[in-house]
Design a protein that fits this description.
Blueprint lengths: L41 E3 L4 E3 L9 E3 L5 E4 L5 E3 L10 E2 H12 L8 E4 L6 E4 L3 E5 L6 E4 L13 E2 L6 H13 L11 H4 E33 L6 E25 L6 H6 L9 E2 L9 E3 L5 H25 L3 E30 L2 E8 L5 E3 L5 H25 L1
Parallel strand pairs: 11-16, 12-15
Antiparallel strand pairs: 1-2, 2-10, 3-4, 4-5, 6-16, 7-8, 9-10, 9-15, 11-14, 12-13, 12-16, 16-17, 17-18
């Protein structure tokens, strides 16, 4: 069997075609000189948080989707993003996890924190893996500033900024909901009963180079004539030959969501993500939006997700290398020559509607506008449709009978 490596493989990582930029929000103020950019964040060192007050009116600056700027929705003042440029660097998975274990030894710091809002004095709670939220009393966006350097946590390496603004996201979800004919009427009034928010979710993106040795069998089909008389017919049979070989795979940007409590299948359906467009992490891209760090770490998501994606593609590569009409793969032994990762924040618009005591989530890809979600089914509408179908069939049968 051939010993030559096969072509590279890239599961669930194709980059979608670039989309036209969404229309800008009306009449932003003139941008400052890019040569004198500074991070406009206001740091609260005692609380280890940061906010983004507008220097013109004191309201809040938020990241403006589709534009490299922070925008004040109250007065239109804009600040150019002062963030590092370039591509996102990936780190060796084994080395990073060993270093994390060493740093975190004996450090049992809790993810849950209560902070005092420096704008109004109210207490804001960060629960679980939430890292950016809004004060429940004055709506000031607040970011935790401690987890990026926390010894027991992997830092965020990159961010894929929002490109779809709220107006476009709402239009997309409106079309999606309108097309759900059998959704209950109450579900379609999501504006009154649902919550709609922008959030950065945590993902891990993996690169790997693998070499796989295999043994198996190649099947070559042939046909024979069997039987006699009226029972004579053609049958397909297969000759099997033992084979062995070696294949190589080169994986790039195999992504895995790292947050729990969300509909994992629908999150996967939002793919593909344009991962090469991700930028080195800056908290400015998160300003005004919710954000979460990971619930499952890079090793867990590799073993429980990315490894399965890679194994599936390796099996396909082995079968192509075996060739023939049919293939049997008896044994594979894969060696990871390199395995690197990066933690990325990816943008999602999230609609949550509670119906009949159950939450239903609808996700909008914050870059491509792709909509995926679940909705309840209306028993009344389904029953009415079935009854209408029965009536139509009955009318057709009566007309056919009268025509005879």
């Amino acid at each position: 069997m051939t010993e030559e490596p096969s072509q590279t493989a890239q599961p669930r990582a194709a980059t979608p075609p670039s989309l036209p930029a969404p229309p800008p929000l009306p009449q932003p103020a003139a941008l400052p000189d890019p040569g004198a950019l500074q991070d406009p964040a206001q740091l609260q060192r005692s609380e280890q948080t940061r906010t983004y007050p507008c220097p013109q009116c004191g309201a809040n600056l938020t990241y403006d989707p589709g534009h490299d700027q922070l925008l004040c929705l109250s007065c239109g003042h804009a600040e150019v993003i002062a963030a590092p440029q370039g591509s996102v660097a990936k780190r060796d998975l084994g080395t990073a996890m060993r270093e994390l274990a060493q740093r975190a030894a004996g450090d049992q710091g809790s993810l849950t924190r209560e902070v005092v809002c420096q704008n109004c004095g109210g207490v804001t709670s960060f629960t679980g893996t939430l890292t950016a939220t809004k004060c429940p009393y004055c709506a000031t966006p607040i970011q935790r500033d401690d987890l990026q350097q926390a010894p027991q946590r992997l830092p965020i390496d990159g961010v894929l900024p929002f490109q779809i603004d709220e107006r476009t996201a709402r239009s997309n979800v409106e079309q999606w909901i309108t097309g759900r004919w059998f959704a209950p009427r109450e579900f379609k009034t999501y504006r009154e009963v649902g919550t709609f928010t922008s959030i950065y979710l945590s993902y891990f993106a993996y690169d790997a180079q693998t070499v796989t040795d295999y043994t198996g069998q190649r099947g070559e089909n042939y046909t024979v004539e069997v039987g006699e008389g009226n029972d004579r017919h053609t049958e397909t049979r297969t000759n099997w030959w033992p084979v062995s070989g070696r294949v190589a795979n080169d994986f790039r940007d195999v992504v895995e969501p790292a947050n729990t409590g969300l509909d994992a299948k629908k999150l996967v359906a939002l793919e593909p993500w344009p991962i090469p467009a991700a930028r080195p992490y800056s908290a400015q891209y998160v300003a005004g939006h919710l954000s979460r760090t990971y619930d499952e770490d890079a090793q867990q998501r590799f073993e429980n997700g990315a490894r399965h994606q890679m194994d599936k593609e390796i099996q396909s590569t082995v079968r192509r290398d075996i060739g023939g009409d049919e293939q049997r793969v008896d044994q594979v032994r894969t060696t990871f020559q390199t395995l690197a990762f990066a933690q990325l924040l990816l943008p999602v618009w999230l609609l949550t509607v509670t119906y009949d005591g159950r939450p239903f989530q609808v996700f909008i890809n914050g870059v491509t506008g792709e909509v995926q979600g679940r909705r309840p089914w209306s028993a009344v509408k389904i029953t009415a449709a079935v009854v209408a179908a029965i009536i139509v069939v009955a009318i057709v049968l009566v007309l056919v009978k009268l025509a005879k």
